[in-house]
Amino acid sequence: MDQVTIYGRSSCGFCVRAKSLCESRNMPYTWVDMIEQDMTKADIADKIGRPVHTVPQILVGDKYVGGYDEFSGYVRQLEAGQAR
To answer: The domain that contains 71 carries what CATH number?
Structure first.
């Protein structure tokens, strides 16, 4: 599986859940803490190429997946053999 990149904050419950989902499925991921990295939502938007209103923002490889809900759906599809 491609590397998962999660942009978020440690104080964000959905961000923590996204990390936990990767860990429970042994998915390789990179956690980018926007507070530690002194990043704004605009900085993340520049990296992913779309406006950012919430975190987490998640990519799988170079493919933008979305937030936690979209990512958990992606993982479910992946496990069912239906992810694109």
So the answer is: 3.40.30.10
CA distance 1 to 53: 27
Beta strands in 1-84 (DSSP E): 4-8, 29-33, 57-60, 63-66
Helices and strands per DSSP (H, E), number in the chain: 3, 4
The token pair at 59 is 């990519």
Considering its fold, how many domains does the chain have in total? 1
**pLDDT tens track for 16-59:** 999 999 999 999 999 999 999 999 999 999 989 999 999 999 99
Q: State the residue range of the domain holding 63.
A: 4-79
Position 59 in a domain: yes
Read off the pLDDT of residues 68-78 as tens digits, 9 standing for 90 and up. 999 999 999 99
